[in-house]
């Protein structure tokens, strides 16, 4: 076994030790308040487009490392991150960017945190929509929080999501294999990307995130592309079964060992 995973420490994409200290001054020590800050630091591409944000800024959506996201924020407005940004001065990103920025700031404060990749059931009735959230350790359990919707009414308590409001990729896969969900209702909103392949992909991305490697939603590696193209078979589904079981058991050593396999580890070239 590989051992433990220190979720209170930064990973390759959540390091922010290069950020000038004043930008991180006076960060709250309470997890929900940290995530509440992030709610006012990121803006979705669709909203940014509606505001007429210049086209050249949409490349921000492709940034993986958090220090790059914070760099954009500080270039737009040098104020500390505790200062809410006007909507046109927020970094452009997806739900993944809300989640990974929250995770990085929580870890900076020494709070054990991790990003989860899966599906939210509170956006569209009867559907699981591709989504990323953050978990932090509190009171002997992992609390699931969605920084993107904090302060809204999509979920009763977005600061502590209820069971079933968010399914990780592995949880959705197990539910599909057990006949509890229709995989055709799980996928990426606004696209034709729905079905088992989307669940497989998110299960692998969630495994990577549990290893502190939080990729972009559209990143592909290993046999993911073949799966999306319908070119994988039962052996690949059995691998996803193993991922789902290991992630559900939440044994850090087993999580790290499984991720280390050639088919599942993120190629070094993507970690930038």
Structural class: alpha/beta
The residue fraction in helices comes out at 25-40%
Task: Please report which band the strand proportion falls in: under 5%, 5-15%, 15-25%, 25-35%, 35-45% or over 45%.
Answer: 5-15%
Alpha-carbon distance between the two ends: 28 Å
List the secondary-structure elements in sequence, H or E.
Answer: HEHHEHEEEEHEHHHH
Number of strands: 7
Mean pLDDT: 96
**Low-confidence blocks of residues:** none
Q: Largest beta sheet, briefly?
A: 5 strands, mixed
Overall geometry comes to globular
Organism: Micromonospora tulbaghiae
Protein name: Transglutaminase-like domain-containing protein
Summarize the helices and strands and which ones pair or pack.
Blueprint: H1 31-39, E1 42-43, H2 45-50, H3 66-76, E2 91-92, H4 95-108, E3 113-120, E4 128-138, E5 141-145, E6 166-168, H5 169-177, E7 186-187, H6 196-210, H7 224-228, H8 234-249, H9 252-259
Parallel strand pairs: 1-2, 4-7
Antiparallel strand pairs: 3-4, 3-6, 4-5
Key terms for this structure?
272 residues, alpha/beta, 5-stranded mixed β-sheet, two-stranded parallel sheet, 9 helices, 7 strands, globular, Transglutaminase-like
What can you tell me about this protein's structure?
Pfam families: Transglut_core. Residues 93-146 form the Transglutaminase-like domain. This is Transglutaminase-like domain-containing protein. The chain has 272 residues and is α/β, with parallel strands linked by helices. It is built from nine helices and seven strands, in the order H-E-H-H-E-H-E-E-E-E-H-E-H-H-H-H. The protein has helices at 31-39, 45-50, 66-76, 95-108, 169-177, 196-210, 224-228, 234-249, 252-259; strands spanning 42-43, 91-92, 113-120, 128-138, 141-145, 166-168, 186-187. The chain is globular, with a radius of gyration of 18 Å. The mean pLDDT is 96.
């Amino acid at each position: 076994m590989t051992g433990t995973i220190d979720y209170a420490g930064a990973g390759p994409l959540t390091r922010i030790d290069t950020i000038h200290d004043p930008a991180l001054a006076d960060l709250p020590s309470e997890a929900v308040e940290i995530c509440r800050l992030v709610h006012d630091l990121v803006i979705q591409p669709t909203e940014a487009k509606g505001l007429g944000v210049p086209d050249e800024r949409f490349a921000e959506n492709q940034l993986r490392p958090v220090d790059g996201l914070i760099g954009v924020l500080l270039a737009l407005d040098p104020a500390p991150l505790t200062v809410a940004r006007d909507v046109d001065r927020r970094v452009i990103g997806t739900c993944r960017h809300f989640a990974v920025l929250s995770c990085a700031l929580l870890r900076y404060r020494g709070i054990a945190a991790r990003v989860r990749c899966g599906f939210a059931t509170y956006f569209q009735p009867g559907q699981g929509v591709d989504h990323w959230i953050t978990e932090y350790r509190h009171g002997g359990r992992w609390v699931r929080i969605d920084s993107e919707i904090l302060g809204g009414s999509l979920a009763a308590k977005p600061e502590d999501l209820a069971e079933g409001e968010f399914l990780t990729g592995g949880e959705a896969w197990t539910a599909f294999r057990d006949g509890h969900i229709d995989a055709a209702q799980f996928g990426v909103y606004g696209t034709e990307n729905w079905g088992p392949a989307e669940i497989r992909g998110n299960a692998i991305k969630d495994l990577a995130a549990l290893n502190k490697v939080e990729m972009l939603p559209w990143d592909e590696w290993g046999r993911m592309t073949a799966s999306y193209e319908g070119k994988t078979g039962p052996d690949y589904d059995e691998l996803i079964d193993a991922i789902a079981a290991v992630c559900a058991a939440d044994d850090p050593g087993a999580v790290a060992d499984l991720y280390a396999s050639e088919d599942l580890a993120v190629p070094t070239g993507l970690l930038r």
